Amino acid sequence: MFDLMKELDGASRIGIGGHVHPDGDCVGSVLGLYNYLIKNMPVDTVIDAYMERPSDVFDTVAGIGEIHETADEACDPYDVFFCLDCDHTRLGHAAPLFANAKKKINVDHHISNKGSGDVNYIDATAGSASELVFDLLDLQKMDENCAKALYIGIIHDTGVLQYSNTSPKTLRAVADLIGFGFDFSTLIEETFYQKSYAQTRVCGKAMFESVLLLDGKVAYTIVTRKTMEEYGLTAKDMDGIVNQIRNIKGVQCAVFLYEMSDTEFKVSMRSTDAVNAADIAVFFGGGGHKKAAGVTMEGSTDEIISRITERIAIQLTD
Ligand code: 5GP
Ligand code: MN
Question: How many CB atoms lie within 10 A of CB 241?
Fold first, then answer.
């Protein structure tokens, strides 16, 4: 771990970026750090956060309205630019700003990330990037805005402190964070569990249409663009479907495909200890964690499913 304030000493322009298709941990780590720096850096410091527009369930997180959804590549270089919850390849519109920054700092918990910064804090045993950002901050200098953002990040990436990436350190962080007094129970309900009626129906359709392969060890399901359009949903609304498929008894790896364009599908995988989903995602050019990984793939759904199932079968017979 590095000394955050030492690395920021003398910086007058600071940028923060998260990954494309931002999830709760991306929003939490970016806005947790953003709110902390706004509070603790000298008032004339430029602090800019970059991210694609996340789901509107995160609308109550402080700073969400100040996020830059586009980037001016020709702007003055940042003295320090943070890449959070991903490596430099997934920064999207913030990638050129990170590349041009005088100092690059990468904080991440993805096993597939080898470290993209001049300064790196990469720990694949951490439950979330938000937990790693928490490690870097001084609890006494946090405020409720920062704490709430980091809490959301930790909750989302640990499945409400249930997944095996939850550690005693995670719980100590969460104990400190809820001490700031925000309504954590409503926050979990509204950002994690609550789904719109349309989302619930599409999730139900996806579950109903799920298919078992390899003696029930693999389950897959597909949501087409046509279905998403019919129900007025976008990629942001697909969160949670793959977890439902993984809950099927006996399934070691759940595979969820949704159509991004005529030939492109976003693939999400969730697995048990028996399958390393990150290895499969990396094999096809994506990344993630052992039990939760993703990749974008081209081809027909039949081709994609058979290519992925083949990789899962190799692991299951090893
Ligand atoms: P999800 O299935 O929820 O989209 O993603 C699961 C995990 O895999 C997340 O930690 C996410 O950041 C990572 N992930 C998903 N898609 C990609 C991808 O296309 N490339 C990389 N490197 N990581 C991905
Ligand atoms: Mn994460």
Answer: 24
Q: Which of 148, 171, 193 is the last residue of a domain?
A: 193
Residues 45 and 63 in one domain: yes
Residue with tokens 């951490």: 126
Domain match, 149 and 213 both: no
Question: What tens digit of pLDDT does each residue of 78-88 get?
Answer: 999 999 999 99
- Return the pLDDT at 112: 87
User: Ligand 2 (ion): which residues have CB within 5 A?
Assistant: 25, 85, 129, 157
Q: What is the pTM of this model?
A: 0.94
- Tens digit of each residue's pLDDT (9 = 90 or more) over 273-300: 999 999 999 999 999 999 999 999 999 9
* 117-145 tens-digit pLDDT: 999 999 999 999 999 999 999 999 999 99
Residue 222: give its domain's CATH number.
3.10.310.30
Q: For a pocket test of ligand 1, which of 20, 84, 108, 110 has the largest count of ligand atoms closer than 8 A to its C-beta?
A: 110
CATH number of the domain that residue 166 is part of = 3.90.1640.10
Secondary structure (DSSP) of 8-60: TTT-SEEEEE--SS--HHHHHHHHHHHHHHHHHS-TT-EEEEE-----GGGTT
Residues 277 and 267: their CA atoms lie apart, in Å, by: 11
Statement to judge: residues 144 and 242 lie in one domain? no
